[in-house]
Amino acid sequence: MIEHLIPILAVTLAAATPLVFAGLGELVTEKSGVINLGVEGMMLIGAVAGFAGALQWGVFGGLICGALGGMLASLPFAFLTLSLGTNQSATGLALTIFGIGLSAFIGQFFVSQGLPGLQPLRIPLLASIPFLGPILFTQTFVVYLSWLAFAIVAWVLARTRWGLILRAVGESPDAAHAIGYPVIRIRYLATLFGGAMSGIGGAYLSTVYTPLWVQNMTAGRGWIAVALVVFATWKPGRLMFGAYLFGGMTILQLHAQGLGIALPSQLLAAVPYVATILVLVLISRDRKLLQQNLPASLGKPFISN
Amino acid sequence: MQLLETRPNPSRVMRWAAPALAILLTLLAAALIFAMLGKPPLNAFHVFFIEPLETANGWSELALKAAPLILIAQGLALGFRARVYNIGAEGQLLMGAVFASGVAIWTDGIESAWILPAMVIAGAVGGGLWGALPALLRTRFRAQETLTTLMLTYVATYFLSWLVSGPWRDPGGSNFPQSILFSDSAMFAPIFEGLRINSSIWITVVAVPLFWLFVSRSFAAYQIAVGGEAAAAARYAGFSAERTVWLSLVVSGAAAGIAGAAEAAGPVGQLTLSLSPGYGYAAIIVAWVGRLHPVGIVLAGLLMALIYLGGESAQVSMQLPAAISWLFQGMLLFFLLGADTFVDYRLKRRRVETAAARGANGA
Amino acid sequence: MSVRSSRNSTPRLELCHITKRYPGVVANDDVSLVVQPGEIHAVLGENGAGKSTLMKIIYGAVHADAGQIMWNGREVSIANPAAARHLGIGMVFQHFQLFETLTVVENIALALEGEFDLKTLASRVTSVSEKYGLTLDPQRMVHSLSVGERQRVEIVRCLLQNPQLLILDEPTSVLTPQAVRRLFETLRQLASEGVSILYISHKLNEIQDLCHHATVMQGGRVTGETDPRNETSASLARMMIGRELPVCSVEPYTGEVRPVLELKGLNYRNDDPFGTSLEAINLTVNRGEVLGIAGISGNGQAELLAALSGELLVDSASVLIEGAQVGHLHAGQRRDLGLAFVPEERLGRGAVPAMSLAENFMLTAHRDPQLRRHGLLSFARARELAARCIERFDVRCNGVKAAARSLSGGNLQKFIVGREIMQAPRLMIVAQPTWGVDVGAAAFLRQTLLDLSRSGVAVLVISEELEELFEISDRIAVLAGGKLSQPVPIEETDAERIGLLMSGVQAQAA
Predict the structure, then answer these.
(1) Which of A167, A175, A296 is the closest to C97 by Cβ?
(2) Could you list the residue ranges that cross the membrane (chain B) (predicted)?
């Protein structure tokens, strides 16, 4: 039984990686007080940009192109919500619709092309740890990169002045402005960071995980990432846990028959979405927990007159 | 970075100029894209906006697409006014279609004038239930409706997919994931011989003035508007926020469900995977471009239907991908939101004003 | 004191001909001002006189359109608050600029430059706060602090930057009389060490008590300069508003006395981590009286008001209006029984900012059958009534179609109070009736509330301004830590005793 679990858990980590990137990015954006519902769109643009880049320069180049694509995609959102103070929910939605259209439009040129994929990178010594080794340390380098991203985000938020400033801006932009912080510029940076991370998440899907370009290939992962940030109560550690939980759920449907679950495949495919709703319900009913961690200005435009 | 200052009074001019400006900017951006693709923009505009309307069939198709968009957007606009963001109208539409198709499939072989009304009601119930679920989750557990409505859309899609490839698959069909073709008494009759436009359009025609009356005069709509503008003021006045959530989600869900029923019992004639070309999402844009106003929504719905038709004709005669209409929709919403800012704000001016409103800006 | 006599020394700060215009209003018009080292310098003026704008210019948060700033004899241009702090200018804001979910030391770190080391900083915070008698625990979250403690955080934050000039904007508006005295001691200690202090206030007695020099502003201009210790309240008031402070006329009530509002053991357990719980509150408000509730915001005021208005539902038997149990009824149903309510937040709660005055009139007036019939509204009728309200209560605005947000604070308050009075209430609840309102409007509002009570309405006023409560109340009680003291007639108490109750000393009651 344990031998069966190893490949399943290993693939779970791989499947969860886009959620890790996009979720960490959205977490940082939301910490600054901006909620960007355009993650799905930015991931798609990242996916198509990453795919194009990977055709030219390989996977690493693809990830960089994905990051740039996601960042560029977040720019109109940032301009509208931050400089013009538009409704963040509506603008994020516009970004998703725009991203679906733009990625499909550009993606038409790549529809029948393929990428070679990426070999896992065995980490010497660590990979030979029984059970954990083959799960954790025979992954592609992108998975390790996602752990690095997690470590950096967690450290910056908890331990550095930058993290403190980010939290302060999200908590009270008025106070931050009054004591002299450039609230809008900080929010721009946080939003662009979120865009870049979503772009990497999307690029990982199209260059490593699948690896092909398919229209609408994110299939709601961007929305799940947004939900994960709520589930994580804006804490990076819980976000990782949530991402792997959901990664596990998407993998489960592939192995359902082997595990003796006799539900039709279409209904199994709906499980991650139902689970997202359940998780949101469970976390949202605990008002105290949410209120203590919610960036107080989340979603509210800041216009200093 | 701060460019703006609050207007003392919202600008009435900008309220209506903003959508026009947004449309203009979208056209400019579209022209740029066409030029980049090596298609002469004027020619492309002709293909996009004129060609579809050169035949009677074109006008029939326009009405056929505009009707569901307008109906759904009227419902969504109610919620948007209250800042209840139902973005899962697509799922509610699909569930409406599923419920209505259920009626059609169970009554197959029976001839009765009651089947069609029963389907419309079933559609409203299906969509309404799919809207009520997020309302329950929001009011009981405070779960954000943006995420829950969208997740429920995915669930509805897979549910529909399971139905048409399992229990409701047409046994006589060639293994395609689709239901049986509905009988005539489960279908809306065409209005003109040879055109696809059918009598379901009357639902929208009746609904628009009702929504107008409701929005402009009713106490319930006033409560919704107050709740959206200032939630604390609504609490202060004793307007129930929960009722607003329920009302807007159930009404918009039911409207989308009826639109879904009309699709299944109209141009599609059966339950299939490709029942809706994204009407539920496009209606979000229609609602916003239409100023959340019942009349504005009619105009915006016609425009959006034209973008759909233009996208189809561009696909045929210019080999452009159909996704281009999503691109335009996204841009239109971007530009509209940007232009909208200037209803309540204006650019900061260096010049000092000696405005009549002295003391408007407390020192 | 002879700070002024050392005229030949270089002034710490000199403002020359500062002018700042906003659309439709000149906030500062040719303002000049000199502050000497070690001087406590008052800037006196009523709400809207332009004091806050001037201070923001000194602190770099707002830029003047014209004029010069001289700092220790050198002309400077202060680009932003960080530049001001660099020069040695610290500011204690009227609305504290603190972050609720961060600790004291984190809040302070945000305003300091240099190495990011919270441990070392925490010990510096402790030592500075001890030196000036401003006790603080650096590791506590700000949301768990009282208002007085929050002000200490702001002051310590400034002191850690070794300021040469400390600006305090209305620092006593939220303090008890005892806390005010402690603050003044700290300020005098600082001044004796050579720190200049700019003290912004509209409270004449405080300025006479504390300040060496006063610059008086009215309507954006400097209208006088004086040593306040040589002035009387009346002469300062004349400089500030051009006349003496208006006084309300209080007539005795001669009608029937009967309880209208009764609270019986009102409890509310708050599950908001940043809120206050209410404990066993008992209170009776009778026809014909104004009952004042003193206390510093954050001691349960918001919760008590919401429980009274029906925005918060409580046990049905704990709130009674004219004998009927209403605790379970929501705000609209309680209004049906004759309750009217003017909240502290005028924009966004008492009125919808972007809606017109006519639409805002509808907010609580819709139960009038002329306004609402069969679920449909008559906006034409609402315009008529709103116009009547504007006329009767002297609301200065551009007519009934003006958006609520286009009105000044005082005029919007008059509109809201007027709207509520026009509902012919039997019980009127008002929170912070004159907060941020100019002297003339404040006097009008106070008189209006007094007249209303004498017409047989029960009026409950919750305010942070003790002077105001002593002026209009018949009886007064204190809400501190979610508990309400026994109301006493104002003749039987004084500001000192109420102040002690406000800081939670229950034993001294009455």
Answers:
(1) A175
(2) 16-37, 62-80, 87-107, 113-137, 149-168, 197-215, 245-262, 295-311, 323-343
First to last CA, chain C: 39
Q: Does position C79 have pLDDT exceeding 80, yes or no?
A: yes
Task: List the domain range (segments joined by +) for residue B65.
Answer: 23-28+38-335
How many CB atoms within 10 Å of residue C221? 15
Four-way CATH pick for C3-241: 3.40.140.10, 1.10.10.920, 3.40.50.300, 3.30.559.70: 3.40.50.300
Q: How confident is the model at residue C510 (pLDDT cuts 50, 70, 90)?
A: very low
Mean local confidence (pLDDT), B174-200:
88
C246-338+426-510: what fold?
A: Rossmann fold (3.40.50)
Lowest mean pLDDT among A29-33, A247-251, B304-308, B356-360: B356-360
Q: What interface predicted TM-score (ipTM) does this complex get?
A: 0.89
Residue C436, SS3 per DSSP: coil
**Residue whose C-alpha is closest to residue B281's, from B157, B167, B166, B172:** B157
Taking only the tens place, the pLDDT of each residue in C236-285 is: 888 888 888 888 888 899 989 999 999 999 999 988 777 889 999 999 99
Distance (Å, rounded) from C-alpha B195 to C-alpha B178? 24
Contact assignment for B329 to A97 by CB distance below 8 Å: yes
Nearest CA to CA, how far is B253 from chain A (Å)? 18
Q: Does B214 touch chain C (CB under 8 A)?
A: no
What is the reported pLDDT for B357?
36
Question: What are the boundaries of each domain within chain C?
Answer: 3-241, 246-338+426-510, 354-424
Q: How far is CA C84 from its chain centroid?
A: 26
Contact (CB<8Å) C406/B357: yes
To 5 degrees, how large is the angle CA B296–CA B298–CA B299?
65
* Domains defined along chain A, listed by start: 2-293 (1.10.3470)
Across the interface, which of C23, C348, C377 has its CB nearest the CB of B230?
C348
Q: Kindly state the average pLDDT of the residues C85-100.
A: 90
Top-confidence residue, A168 or B317: A168
B317: left (phi over 0), alpha (psi -120 to 50) or beta: alpha
B354/C241: higher pLDDT = C241
pLDDT band at C505 (very low <50, low <70, confident <90, very high): low
Max CA separation in chain B (angstroms): 78
Show the DSSP H helices in chain A as ranges. Answer: 2-31, 39-78, 88-107, 132-136, 141-159, 161-171, 173-178, 183-204, 221-231, 236-255, 265-269, 271-284, 287-293
Residue type, A138: T
